[in-house]
Structure to design on (532 residues):
């Protein structure tokens, strides 16, 4: 009975953990690495066809995005997830597959111009459809026996519609153990979905640490703040552009705008137009509208019982086709445009920025984290000019950030959730946080009397013996260092080849004049002296 950490070890994305119980192998999450790849992750030490089952905490691509690749490589077991997670994956994995195919086509065109072969996508739409056929939707709170020696239960963890912590009961050699995977623990008081629910007991815990070394800003009246931004922009006749993640954040902003309208907080502006311009966001909104009431918080549930749609209102337009998208910028009325991606790195938001950044009456309102070097971060940091579609755009629009919109628990929230266990787990494994956050949260737990580890990729732990069996310690070679080393090796190889070519040139000059050979010898000695 062993656990081995594969992905999201001292990193935030690429969640993947291998659990072995007897002769059976289980994978918890199978996510795609996104953004800066800091550490080199080990590959799963088994072939995909040997995996019996996957347990999925939620639909975000950094937790689910490599499931189609697992299918492509031969996995044909079952994938257990909540019904809402399965429904969101239905659209998100298809969308991800389209992106993989598009990027492969683009890379292939570049490769073929160099006389090289085509580039194969990481996976295709057919692979995504194959993976989706393996999903087994599972209700919250219901213990499900997935094999003779393993039972699981999903508990709402309040991060995203359908997100869950996963309890796993295991039996091997007449001994039983229990392990809990937190998934991504949600922030409290998020709209639409419930606050994180607690689990009462476990032997072992794997907990995320995205915000393990910091606290969110003190709660503000997000609704009042958003209403103020809307009023400011509409009053001066401008457009409010909101780069928003298609799944989760867009629906939360729609809920907030509807609440602002319902409360009459913008009496001067009436039914101003709101556009959602993202096919993925439109499909995800459909999933939110049709979700079961078990996922909803009390406030949203009360609205639904009154027959009120919590994320639909007069003046809302959902844009799907490219023609719909282009038409938005011909609507001269002051308006709100929500579009993906949330960090402005791709998608239709870039077209809207091109049309709106240069006008001082407009505002770009950021409602999520902006990673280093993203276009969103450049704008937040005050860039005066940006390049979009090969054209330099001057930035005159106002930049603003909406507070209180994080979907992750901060350090205090993680501790509150952890303290929901009646007895401290034997060992707490900290993952899914960048190196500083992961280590800081582990150290905090040690100070609070927990036995805590922050394992690197490849570390294996025996849950029966309560000890490490494979330990990847301290300082794994970072992915960037490996890439730098590879580049250094390639350049050095080229240098040696050049020196050998020079030697062959010198050896072939036996019939040349003494004067020319003396001149070349002098030049070579000067070169040696210079670089020595």
């Amino acid at each position: 009975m062993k656990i081995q950490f594969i992905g999201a070890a001292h990193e935030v994305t690429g969640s993947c953990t291998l659990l072995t119980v007897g002769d059976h192998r289980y994978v918890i999450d199978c996510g795609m690495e996104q953004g800066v790849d800091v550490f080199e992750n080990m590959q799963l030490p088994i072939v995909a066809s040997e995996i019996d089952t996957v347990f999925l905490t939620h639909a975000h691509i950094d937790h689910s995005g490599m499931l189609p690749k697992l299918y492509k490589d031969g996995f044909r077991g079952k994938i257990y997830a909540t019904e809402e997670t399965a429904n969101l994956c239905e659209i998100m994995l298809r969308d991800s597959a389209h992106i993989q195919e598009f990027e492969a086509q683009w890379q292939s065109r570049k490769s073929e111009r160099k006389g090289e072969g085509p580039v194969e996508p990481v996976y295709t739409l057919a692979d995504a459809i194959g993976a989706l056929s393996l999903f087994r939707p599972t209700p919250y709170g219901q213990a499900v026996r997935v094999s003779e020696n393993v039972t699981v239960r999903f508990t709402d963890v309040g991060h995203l519609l359908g997100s869950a912590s996963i309890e796993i009961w295991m039996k091997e050699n007449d001994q039983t153990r229990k392990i809990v995977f937190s998934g991504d623990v949600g922030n409290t008081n998020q709209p639409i979905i419930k606050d994180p629910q607690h689990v009462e007991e476990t032997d072992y815990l794997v907990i995320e640490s995205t915000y393990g070394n910091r606290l969110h800003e003190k709660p503000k009246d997000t609704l009042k703040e958003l209403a103020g931004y809307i009023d400011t922009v509409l009053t001066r006749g401008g457009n409010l552009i909101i780069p928003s993640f298609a799944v989760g954040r867009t629906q939360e902003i729609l809920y907030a705008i509807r609440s602002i309208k319902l409360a009459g907080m913008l009496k001067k502006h009436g039914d101003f137009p709101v556009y959602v311009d993202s096919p993925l966001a439109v499909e995800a909104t459909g999933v939110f509208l049709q979700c079961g009431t078990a996922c909803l918080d009390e406030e949203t549930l009360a609205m639904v019982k009154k027959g009120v749609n919590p994320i639909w209102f007069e003046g809302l337009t959902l844009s799907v086709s490219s023609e719909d998208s282009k038409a938005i910028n011909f609507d001269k009325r002051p308006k709100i445009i929500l579009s993906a991606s949330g960090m402005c790195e791709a998608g239709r938001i870039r077209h809207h920025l091109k049309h709106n950044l240069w006008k001082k009456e407009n505002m770009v309102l950021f409602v999520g984290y902006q990673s280093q070097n993203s276009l969103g971060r450049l704008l937040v940091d005050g860039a005066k000019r940006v390049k979009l579609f090969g054209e330099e755009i001057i930035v005159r629009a106002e930049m603003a950030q909406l507070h209180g919109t994080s979907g992750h628990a901060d350090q205090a929230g993680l501790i509150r959730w952890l303290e929901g266990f009646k007895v401290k787990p034997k060992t707490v494994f900290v993952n899914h946080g960048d190196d500083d956050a992961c280590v800081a949260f582990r150290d905090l737990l040690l100070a609070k009397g927990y036995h805590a580890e922050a394992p690197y990729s490849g570390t294996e732990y025996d849950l029966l013996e309560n000890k490490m069996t494979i330990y990847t310690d301290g300082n794994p070679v970072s992915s960037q260092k490996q890439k730098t080393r590879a580049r250094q090796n390639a350049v050095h190889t080229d240098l040696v080849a050049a020196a050998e070519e020079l030697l062959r040139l010198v050896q072939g000059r036996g019939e040349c004049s003494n004067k020319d050979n003396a001149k070349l010898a002098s030049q070579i000695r000067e070169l040696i002296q210079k670089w020595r």
